[in-house]
Amino acid sequence: MNYFLDTEFNELGGELISLALVREDTGGFLYVATPCKEPGPWVAANVMTVLDVPGADPVMILPNSFGRFIADFLDGDAYPVIISDWPDDIRYFCAALITASGEMVNIPRLQFNIVRVDAYPTTLPGMIQHNALSDARALFHKLQGGA
């Protein structure tokens, strides 16, 4: 099954702040975030202000818990395909799966697909750019033929 991914992180190369996955079949989602103690100026103005908005209220977790939440969300899907529009999303996703040196959460198989599209503007109501859940939903909508 396809899952549409977006992440937000603290400036270029900074720590992961939020991650969202949207299921293709049901539209069900995972939206998790962790506090960002010292956001960079751009992130403070554009990400932190929309981290928690109506319809996109993240589960707040510890930074080392992202992988467990991802594994629980994907549990039961033998062939998950993670789709993103940018390589950093895949990089942060993969880093979140690693729990210790040489160890990762139990996800037996993953496939990744990067599709370079602009998900915005979108006709989906209520979407807010730089909110990971809105961005993942907008990507899903765009790739399903939406505008």
Structural class: alpha/beta
**Major sheet: arrangement of strands:** 4-3-2-1-5-8
> What is the C-alpha radius of gyration, as a whole number of Å?
14 Å
Percentage of residues in strands: 15-25%
The string of secondary-structure elements, in order, is EEEHEHEHEEEH
Percent of residues in helices: 25-40%
- Round the mean pLDDT to the nearest integer and report it: 95
Q: Unreliable runs, pLDDT <50, ≥5 residues?
A: none
C-alpha geometry? globular
Count every helix, treating DSSP H or I runs of 4 or more residues as helices. Answer: 4
Q: End-to-end distance, in Å?
A: 22 Å
Let me know the largest β-sheet: 6 strands, mixed
Give the strand tally: 8
Describe the protein's topology.
Layout: E1 2-9, E2 16-23, E3 29-33, H1 41-46, E4 59-60, H2 66-74, E5 81-84, H3 87-97, E6 98-100, E7 103-104, E8 111-114, H4 132-143
Parallel strand pairs: 1-5, 3-4, 5-8
Antiparallel strand pairs: 1-2, 2-3, 6-7
Helix pairs in contact: 2-3
Brief overview:
Helix 2 packs across helix 3. Helices cover 26% and strands 24% of the residues.
Brief descriptors of the model:
147 residues, alpha/beta, two-stranded antiparallel ribbon, 8 strands, 26% helix, globular
Question: What features would you describe in this structure?
Answer:
The protein is α/β, with parallel strands linked by helices. Helix content is 26%, strand content 24%. The protein contains 4 helices and 8 strands. It has helices at 41-46, 66-74, 87-97, 132-143, and strands at residues 2-9, 16-23, 29-33, 59-60, 81-84, 98-100, 103-104, 111-114. A 6-stranded mixed beta sheet has the order 4-3-2-1-5-8. Strands 6-7 form a two-stranded antiparallel sheet. Helix 2 packs across helix 3 (87-97). The longest helix is centred in the last third of the chain and has 12 residues, at 132-143. The radius of gyration is 14 Å and the shape is globular. The mean pLDDT is 95.
